[in-house]
Design a protein that fits this description.
Blueprint lengths: L23 H6 L7 H8 L7 H11 L7 H8 L3 H10 L13 H15 L5 H27 L11 H36 L4 H5 E11 L2 H7 L2 H21 L3 E5 L3 E6 L2 H16 L7 E13 L2 E3 L1 H12 L4 E5 H9 L7 H14 L9 E5 L3 E3 L3 E3 L1 E6 L2
Parallel strand pairs: 4-6
Antiparallel strand pairs: 1-3, 1-4, 2-3, 4-5, 6-10, 7-10, 8-9
Helix pairs in contact: 3-8, 4-6, 5-7, 11-12
């Protein structure tokens, strides 16, 4: 589905004439949606340059052929043009003017989204957010699948172009990838719903207390000048893959990746501490990776569209920037959480005293601490005042 910011008049706007040599609005935007205006016009113009196989692939993926202009699609869905334009823009699709480029699937999607608003299940603003979050997430997924997956499986062969190879491949993969996407989404939805249901009250559903951590590759800017583009891409992919696997395996959630940096969150300090230390330990044994530094904070976090915001996030970011190489630096509130949960002692002296008392008094096993905390000098941090950092490491 592509979008256009049109009017809601009763008469369908006249289709604009495309300037000679123009690639259309979608091409100008640099990110054409599934209904590319250049292709739509070429399909109607015998002199058009669109590859007919490319059009067949689009029809295969979308499940139907191009039938509607944006105005016609909005009218068929029974949705005001202004609202349809908002939905399409939120999904990230480019302006296509009044090219006949939309399908029955686009009409059905419009009808469903507007129906949720009419039924009172979603406000109009919330429906737009649903469209935006879904569009942004699936756009990244689609780009990755084409760049890293489909492209690698469609190497041109003698007598066949890449496009000709792509059609039967897409025909085979499409239903499998679609089923897998729905499965993963349902799993993620179940996990997210479980977290919300377990919240203590309504306020906690919006502003929750979480552990938030950043992991940052040291000297990445210098690497960009020294490595070839392909080598740099492989390093970033290896880092992101390793970080994502470790975060998921130990019960955290990967919020986003920023090339040389990842942002993760966990419901408790012990889980975040394990992730931070594991990241340092794992990358330290990889000679291809630069040093890593991690900063973690604990506190109230605002969540929106899968991202996290607030002072706690800013604090974790600042801690990362001042952390020594191959170390985990945490804030005082995070350290207090670890101590309260029994994951770390208040001090090594306190740990030694507890072990001695357990051995002499026969009261049972000594406390089993996973981490150790070393207080660092308090220091001013830009925008956050004076902070109390602690060096976190695995005990023993």
């Amino acid at each position: 589905m592509s979008e256009v910011a049109g009017s809601s008049g009763a008469e369908e706007p006249r289709r604009p004439v495309r300037p000679e040599g123009s690639g259309g609005a979608a091409g100008a935007a640099g990110a054409p949606g599934p209904a590319d205006p250049g292709g739509a016009e070429a399909a109607e113009d015998p002199e058009g340059e669109d590859d007919p196989i490319a059009l067949r692939i689009e029809q295969l993926i979308l499940g139907s052929d191009r039938r509607y202009t944006p105005f016609q699609a909005a009218r068929a869905a029974g949705v005001p043009m202004e609202l349809a334009a908002r939905f399409w823009r939120a999904m990230g699709f480019a302006d296509i003017g009044q090219a006949k480029a939309l399908t029955e699937a686009d009409v059905l999607a419009l009808r469903r989204l507007a129906g949720l608003v009419e039924a009172g299940l979603l406000s109009e603003g919330m429906a737009v957010q649903v469209a935006r979050s879904t569009g942004q997430t699936t756009a990244r997924l689609a780009d990755w699948q084409i760049d890293s997956f489909l492209e690698g499986l469609t190497e041109p062969q003698e007598g066949m172009s890449r496009t000709e190879i792509a059609y039967p491949l897409v025909e085979l993969l499409l239903p499998e990838l679609e089923e897998f996407l729905v499965y993963v989404w349902r799993r993620q939805l179940a996990a997210a719903t479980g977290r919300v249901v377990q919240a203590q009250d309504d306020d906690e559903m919006v502003a929750r207390r979480l552990a938030v951590g950043f992991a940052d590759l040291v000297g990445f800017t210098r690497l960009t000048r020294r490595l070839e583009e392909e080598e740099l891409g492989e390093l970033v992919e290896a880092f992101e893959t390793t970080a994502a696997d470790l975060v998921a395996a130990h019960g955290g959630r990967l919020i986003k990746t920023l090339g040389d940096e990842v942002l993760f969150a966990a419901d408790d300090a012990g889980t975040a501490a394990e992730i931070g230390v594991r990241l340092i330990e794992t990358l330290a044994h990889d000679e291809t990776m630069p040093e890593l530094r991690v900063g973690i904070a604990f506190g109230t976090v605002t969540t929106r569209m899968g991202d996290v915001f607030g002072t706690t996030v800013n604090l974790a970011s600042r801690l990362t920037s001042i952390a020594p190489k191959d170390t985990v630096l945490v804030h005082g509130d995070f350290a207090a959480e670890l101590i309260r949960d029994g994951a770390a002692p208040e001090s090594e002296a306190a740990a030694a005293a507890a072990e001695k008392a357990a051995a002499e008094g026969g009261t049972g096993e000594a406390p089993s601490y996973r981490f150790t905390l070393q207080p660092m000098w308090q220091r001013p941090v830009r925008g956050l005042g004076v902070v109390e950092p602690w060096l976190l490491s695995r005990r023993g």
